[in-house]
Amino acid sequence: MTIEARIRELGNRHRVLDETIQREFGHPSVDDLQVRKLKRQKLRIKEEITSLEARTG
């Protein structure tokens, strides 16, 4: 897989996590633990995207 393809894949996962987090806030009783877990995953993905983008330069 090329770096560009990996960045696109990670970008899609990042977007899906963002949508999932937004849906969680739409529930009457927000699961704070779940939201924190999703946000950590989203941050890790963003960091990986940034790292890959720096390599392509």
How large is the share of residues in beta strands? under 5%
* Helix/strand/pairing category: mainly alpha
Please work out how many helical segments DSSP would assign.
Answer: 2
Work out the count of structural domains.
1
So what's the overall shape? elongated
Query: pLDDT below 50 for ≥5 consecutive residues: which ranges?
Result: none
Order of helices and strands: HH
How would a crystallographer describe the biggest sheet? none
Q: How far apart are the termini?
A: 18 Å
Output mean pLDDT.
95
Radius of gyration over C-alpha positions, nearest whole angstrom = 13 Å
Strand tally is 0
Write a brief caption for the model.
The chain is mostly helical and 57 residues long. The protein contains two helices and no strands.
